[in-house]
Write a structure and sequence with these properties.
This protein is of the alpha+beta class. Among the domains are: 127 residues, no CATH class; 85 residues, no CATH class. 61% of the residues lie in helices and 7% in strands. The protein contains 28 helices and eight strands. Helix 3 crosses helix 6. It is elongated, with a radius of gyration of 41 Å. InterPro entries: RNF213 (IPR031248). GO terms for molecular function: ATP hydrolysis activity; ubiquitin-protein transferase activity.
Length: 631
């Protein structure tokens, strides 16, 4: 043991029983126990250093496997030391004399690598414990291998991989420490890390694991992630501020914009005061954002309401009463007035209480009042929007060219009101014709909406275009289907009836008959299949749409399975897929039997046919008034 020729297995035995060994030494008169104890400690230190270097080199070889490195000099020595217990300690370690540093005094000679190389390899293994340095190691290693086009030597790994990796890592460390690293960089590197792992990654950059900058970056990261979660709300609030020209203090949300819009801003500029804004936004979900979005997009309407209702809601009743009086018995107009009253009442805090000098905190308080109203009326955002059901397209001459102008339903309603006010003998015929056509189109539109709401898929891609110019030979285009399956009917004016409203009413009447037939069909199916009675028509339409998504790239709504649990306890996706496959197999079998047993017939005689037969039916519907051509 004194000369170092003791084998590693014998040294391990002595170390395991060191107390007993030293007691035996005490019984030997000509041996100094303290000298033996000192020699034993030296050999223990040598063995520990060798074992540590051995482990480090094993890890280093493993790290070199991600790119091509010639580690033969290490591999060969590892093979020789396979039966390590029989190897004398002096064959793997020796002590250098006159070395001040006790660590450097012990030299591992087993692998024929200098202390400097072993020290660098030890640092490589230590740094590669961190995820980010490991990425740099991989990047520069593959780059160096690509340039050399053959395996790297250990020396080349130290100069071409370790050194540039360490340089980039050190620069990143400085930027992390002083907070100049950009938010977008920071989020790209560690945005998906859990907090514990993120702290550990930062600690790999710093020997002092409790450095203040680490805690500061962790808090800034939490704040940044929270800000990005509320990105929609923050952007929308600043848009409302600009849209309504609010002069109050919105400084904090405006200062937050660069951070959440991926601009180049350093982490050190993340103000702790942003946390107050985030706390005020925590309860703003997508429904509330939609509510605010409707308010922001209705700027013109809100400004008009403010101008005509100087006393706010006190004047709303007068407007509503006048609107009801002018709507008559028209169900759609009455619904529109009701929606208008609900919208103005619900949004009243923002419409009438939001002054020009309103600041952020006052704005959030007003929003809270609106959201309370939204809880009572879930449709509030939609009621501030005007949904177009019909549109009128007119080709107008402009200069040397022709432009196309589109009038929405609101434009047409406004035009009709103005025409009724200015109507006189002059132009009365044109005004009457416009009103008759427009009223007929509204009837057709309402019937079409009822058809869609009934769940009848035959009219999903139904479209009608009317040519209201009496000089046009073709007066109507009716189309079914989509893309290559589209069928189009062109209706030409007849010699007897040339009134456009007549064509519209004929098609509206046809849709009404189809709707009645469909309703009768559904009633019959409910009687035949009692399980359908568990669902309302609206729910059946929902099931129809969502079940069609199974087997496609689009996943059905999560609401599908709870709804089906009414007829199948704890219904899940597997249950639905299995049922659809069984139904498909049953239908194929039924169709097979029908083809075998059924006599030949005209496809249009079967009212269940969803293709050309429907086109023929529409032809019959308008055929009394015009000549129809199918393409």
């Amino acid at each position: 043991m004194s000369s170092g020729q003791i084998t590693i297995s014998h040294l391990n035995i002595v170390i395991d029983y060191s107390d007993m060994f030293l007691k035996i030494v005490e019984e030997i008169s000509d041996v100094d126990k303290q000298d033996v104890k000192r020699v034993l400690e030296m050999r223990m230190d040598e063995l520990k250093k060798f074992q540590r270097i051995h482990q480090i080199l094993e890890k280093f070889v493993e790290l070199c496997e991600v790119f091509e490195v010639n580690t033969k000099v290490i591999d060969d020595e590892m093979t020789k030391l396979k039966d390590l217990q029989k190897v004398p300690l002096c064959n793997v370690c020796r002590r250098e004399e006159f070395i001040i540093d006790q660590e450097d005094e012990i030299k591992v000679i087993a692998f024929n690598l200098s202390n400097d190389v072993l020290k660098q390899i030890s640092e490589i293994v230590s740094h590669c414990e961190g995820y980010f340095f490991l990425r740099l190691w991989d990047k520069y290693g593959k780059c160096a291998t690509k340039i050399k086009k053959e395996s790297l030597t250990i020396e080349e790994v130290l100069t071409s991989v370790w050194k540039p990796s360490l340089d980039e890592w050190s620069k990143l460390y400085e930027r992390l420490k002083n907070g100049t690293i950009l938010c977008i960089e920071f989020n790209t590197m560690w945005g998906n890390f859990e907090q514990d792992r993120f702290r550990k990654e930062l600690q790999y950059f710093e020997h002092d694991k409790t450095s203040n900058w680490i805690d500061e970056r962790i808090e800034q990261r939490k704040l940044y992630l929270e800000m990005t979660r509320y990105k929609k709300a923050i952007v929308l609030i600043t848009e409302i501020k600009d849209s309504y020209k609010l002069s109050g203090d919105f400084d904090l949300p405006q200062r937050m914009l660069p951070f959440i819009q991926d601009h180049d801003v350093g982490m050190s500029k993340l103000d702790r005061s942003f946390a107050d804004i985030c706390r005020s936004l925590r309860n703003i979900d997508d429904k509330k954002i939609k509510c605010l979005r409707s308010f922001q997009e209705s700027n013109a309407l809100v400004l008009w309401l403010r101008s005509v209702m100087k006393n706010g809601l006190d004047e709303l009743k007068v407007f509503v009463d006048l609107a009801y009086n002018s709507s008559g018995d028209d169900g759609m107009d009455i619904t529109r007035v009701t929606s208008f009253r609900a919208a103005v009442t619900g949004y009243a805090p923002l419409i009438f209480e939001m002054k020009e000098n309103c600041d952020y905190r006052q704005f959030i308080l007003l929003c809270t009042k609106v959201w309370r109203a939204m809880q009572a009326n879930k449709c509030l955002p939609e009621e501030l929007e005007l949904q177009d059901v019909l549109q009128l397209t007119i080709d107008e001459e402009e200069g040397n060219g022709q432009t196309r102008k589109v009038y929405t339903l609101d434009d047409l309603n406004d035009l009709q009101s103005r025409l009724m006010l200015i109507g006189s003998v002059v132009g009365k015929e044109d005004i009457d014709r416009f009103c008759e056509i427009f009223d007929s189109l509204k009837i057709l539109g309402r019937t079409f909406i009822r058809m869609l709401n009934s769940g009848c898929v035959l009219f999903s891609n139904f479209q009608v275009e009317f040519r209201c110019d009496k000089k046009s030979a073709v007066c109507v285009f009716v189309s079914f289907g989509e893309k290559h399956d589209k069928k189009i009917i062109r209706g030409k004016r007849g010699t007897k009836d040339q009134e456009d409203c007549l064509f519209v009413r004929k098609i509206a009447d046809y849709l009404t008959r189809c709707l009645n037939e469909w309703d009768s069909f559904i009633d019959a199916q409910r009687e035949k299949h009692y399980l359908l009675n568990y669902f309302s028509m609206k729910q059946l339409v929902f099931l129809q749409c969502e079940l069609a998504k199974l087997g496609t790239d689009t996943e059905p709504s999560v609401k599908l399975y709870p709804l089906l649990s009414a007829i199948k306890h704890d219904c899940n996706r597997e249950d639905v897929v299995k049922s659809l496959r069984n139904a498909q197999a049953e239908l194929m079998e039924m169709e097979k039997e029908e083809r075998i047993n059924a006599p030949k017939r005209d496809v249009c005689d079967d009212q269940r046919d969803m293709g050309p037969c429907q086109v023929v039916k529409v032809t019959f519907a308008i055929g009394d008034s015009c000549d129809a051509t199918c393409t």
